[in-house]
Amino acid sequence: MLIALGFTAASMPQQTGRIQAAKRVARQMKIATFRVSGERKVGLVDEVRQRVTPFALPRDEAREGVLALIRHADAPELLPALPLGKVALEAPIPRPSRNIFCVGKNYLEHVKENTATSLAAGVARSAPPANPVVFSKLPECVIAHGETVKFDPRVSASIDYEAELAVIIGKGGRSISPTQAMDHVWGYTIVNDVTARDMQVRHQQWLIGKSQDTFCPMGPWAVPRDAIDLADARVRCWVNGELRQDGNTRDLIFNVPTIIATISAGITLFPGDVIATGTPAGVGVGFKPPKFLVHGDAVRIEINGIGVLENEFQEIR
Ligand code: MG
Q1: Phi and psi of 69, rounded to 5°?
Q2: Cβ(93)–Cβ(139) under 8 Å?
Q3: What's the CA angle centered on 280, arms 141 and 218, to 5 degrees?
Q4: CA–CA separation, 89 vs 220, rounded Å?
Q5: Per-residue model confidence as pLDDT tens digits over 196-239
Q6: Which range is least confidently modeled, 51-55, 111-115, 146-150, 222-226?
Q7: How many whole angstroms separate alpha carbon 285 and alpha carbon 279?
Q8: CA distance 266 to 147
Q9: 68, 145, 192, 238: which has the fewest C-beta neighbours closer than 10 Å?
């Protein structure tokens, strides 16, 4: 476990056996940020036994959530396990230190459904993008698995979901090449890139339509990078039990190394930065008529190798 959490493994080829063992462990690791007795902790989740084992982290470090672990070259000691049902899950990085990077139009089938909508709205956008479309969400809109997304019908009448794999940066850097990019990935989580479609069109720039308070459910926890095979990670989303999105990260137009190389070309990435990689086809606006979210809807996102992120949507009245 020590090696799996740090970044030194790749530079120690003589320890191949240990690295392979560590990767096996890493594939099963789920690392949650949670609250117990009012205090934030970070711990290893055991879904089968429904337990979470906290790391012995100083309180001021645990405040950063999973980022506290990223900063440690070695895994901290473990404390006694707790029942998962007795803790309150938080987003893996409850308050990112800056905006969440997001990639738009990164699955071809989603570009097609998006194009039809854009044309109908008189905002002509046609071909798949030649370069990654990067925008961001404010860090204050992050909420946890199980928390409620609250939308204001006086502000938007077209609330939509977007199931996405999100990358968590472990090692910062600038001008990161695609071949080096995966060394900078610590792990992954799930993000629901909740979007007010009418605001997206009305304001042309996406920030406010994507950053309304509570519009970034993240979780339920994070997994190290070896837990996911980007060549085959299924991304699914259900609304009230109805399957709406069923994509796979193998279909990303711009893959994770390309995204990291593009952003870091002129912007230094830091440990704990989160990059949502885009959503597959099947968002509400793509249906005819559109299926926007209404009060009481439950959106459940599952990515193989990570878990399930589920949130209810409620109107602010
Ligand atoms: Mg998105």
Answers
A1: -70, -40
A2: no
A3: 25
A4: 7
A5: 999 998 998 999 999 999 999 999 999 999 999 999 999 999 99
A6: 111-115
A7: 13
A8: 35
A9: 238
The radius of gyration of the chain from alpha carbons, rounded to an integer in Å, stands at: 19
Nearest Cα neighbor of 249 from 146, 141, 131, 103 is 103
Cα dihedral angle (49, 24, 11, 96), rounded to 10 degrees? Answer: -40
Amino acid at 313: F
CA of 247 to the centre of ligand 1 (A): 13
CA of 287 to the centre of ligand 1 (A): 17
pLDDT in tens, 260-298: 999 999 999 999 999 999 999 999 999 999 999 999 999
| Structural domains of the chain sorted by starting position, each given as residue range(s) with its CATH number in brackets | 2-90 (no CATH), 100-315 (3.90.850.10)
Distance 46 CA to ligand 1 centre (A): 30
pTM of the model: 0.92
- Cα 96 to middle of ligand 1, angstroms: 17
Q: What is the pLDDT of residue 7?
A: 39
Q: Tokens 């969400």, residue?
A: 137
